[in-house]
Write a structure and sequence with these properties.
homodimer; alpha/beta; 6-stranded parallel sheet; 15 helices
Amino acid sequence: MDNFTFYAPTYFDFGRGAELHTAELIQKFGGSRVLLHYGGGSIKKSGLYDRIVAVLDGAGIPFVELGGVKPNPRSGLVRQGIELCKREKIDFILAVGGGSTIDSSKAIAAGSLYDGDFMDFYRGKAVVEKALPIGTVLTIAAAGSEGSPNTVITDEENQVKKGMKSDYLRPRFSVLNPELTCTLPPYQTAAGATDIMAHICERYFSNTEESEITDRLCEAVLKTIICEAPRVIEDPGNYEARANIMWAGMLAHNNVCGVGREQDWASHHIEHELSALYDVTHGAGLAVVMPKWMRYVLDKNPDKLVLFAARVWDIPMDEERPRETALKGIEAFEAFLKSIGMPSTLGEVGVGREDIEKMTDKLLGKKKTEGKYVELEREDVIRIYESCL
Amino acid sequence: MDNFTFYAPTYFDFGRGAELHTAELIQKFGGSRVLLHYGGGSIKKSGLYDRIVAVLDGAGIPFVELGGVKPNPRSGLVRQGIELCKREKIDFILAVGGGSTIDSSKAIAAGSLYDGDFMDFYRGKAVVEKALPIGTVLTIAAAGSEGSPNTVITDEENQVKKGMKSDYLRPRFSVLNPELTCTLPPYQTAAGATDIMAHICERYFSNTEESEITDRLCEAVLKTIICEAPRVIEDPGNYEARANIMWAGMLAHNNVCGVGREQDWASHHIEHELSALYDVTHGAGLAVVMPKWMRYVLDKNPDKLVLFAARVWDIPMDEERPRETALKGIEAFEAFLKSIGMPSTLGEVGVGREDIEKMTDKLLGKKKTEGKYVELEREDVIRIYESCL
């Protein structure tokens, strides 16, 4: 196990009706002038917007609003948010929505206390040293941004998704009410479940030996999604299954499942180029890329794929032919993704061959390789994209 | 899944040499005058005391010392510590040791900012509303106090162990260097591993349905201890196995494995009376009590014991005879505890029949029942003690 630090100080308020505690949570964490940040009309249709406004008004907390966050959140709206926070002397950001809204809020939080362009943080030109505090009311189990230090923004000028992380960006509190996810369409639900599984896989496929506890935690989250995702596809209003997925989604990305070892993230980065260029739903893109990445790296570094098959998918271990065991694990993963309605080829999400070279160049930038479990060179990335067609 | 809140803001610095960061961590979390609290001579023999003093001196952090914490930490020493903190205007407590030292520090932290007797908190007469911040340097994987809000103190006047918890008592930081545990004797190591398993079992045996994620996390920690504990008994200097146990020990008690459901704690409370009266090593007492509790409740509420057998001990499920499956799980647990050198009867830890009624009365106090998975009445508790003889 490698040396590590772990710090996850977010206060979670989980359960039915938890959004009604939002005002007291803002006050508990020192907020007095709030930016209410959200996406499209879904929180208005569902009544969540009205409930949040009512509790803020009820507590006498002044707020300004910025809606309009889109999936794969854009740099342009972040700039508007930063300007608004500075002008209105905002001291707390409340994100009501999914990962995109929370990631956008994190960008605004960092940018509001920074003199330069906030994209400096995402381009590796500056490090976050302070940020406005944020709280979240989560409406989809997927990105894990409600408990993570991470944020991903699409740079509109360059059509590229860029991520960064900082402990200053961990939400002070997150409200997780599984009821709020019960109205999500099956496709979004399944894409969220896939994203959660991918967050674990990127941490599970590691060359660092001897981190049994972290392996076991990863398997626990994957097993939970494998158990619960089909139940919500079958019965979207199943509160209990939604609750398990929602909490698993947080655990999948607050890094408790990743400490003490090298992580990979190649599949995520390969997918980010798809989302940036074609606006593919992130989880759906991952459903295509992740198993193809597994097939590609299988012969280069099979060990963890064998464990994945045996422990996560209960494939009986064939000691004589471990490759076959691993392959059955990948097939089980593919069958599972298909069963919850996820795509398995880029064609299904409207992506063709023509941009593969361009996406590969953007992905690698100045780097020679991508990923750690197997270090992928340019040719490897191209072959993985091609295998996804 | 029940509604819950979860808040675990401790900063963990994990790995080789981590104790050398102690001074900068104290400063990061605002400490300027420190109480250095520790137990007996082991940290002096090992050189850890000298290293800690050197980093404090090197950073120019003034400190006063209070050693002498004993296993099952005593109220008398806590009172000395409170007096010392008040007199010396201490603003940060550094606990260097195991669960007893950390629990004693928590009591001092709460008592130093309270006008009444600190035992009020443990007797349910007052609630902690503020406390001095504490940091820890952990020397044994067992109690999980390094990441928990809990503390247990032996009330010397009444020979009774009393516990309490408060988020104000969660350590600001904890330094976890597995190397520091490599010199522990096998018996202490095994007792620590047993305590870790018990912290999980008290959370696993729950009547709350539909918390798959929490079940899976519990199983992950148990599986890790089952894998790693025999390795350190065989080879006490095995850093990797020590590291896995140390991190598992924190996870077992910061409540990430217990959220969203009713917990039990009968075995812990039954054992606390043994520790209070006979100064039994807590983990060794649990090794006796826990399996006997399982055997006692088996016929009253078998379901979770069946799951425990199947998922934790890999007992093939006998659908026709689930009781047999569960029993094999308990037997596997007993065999495991024996294999790592733990006792299985009260006779082995020097406890006889004569105090059973007295312990039962103390345990129940004014309560009618103990535990939740099965509510134990007075007669049940007596029978469990008797079955432990």
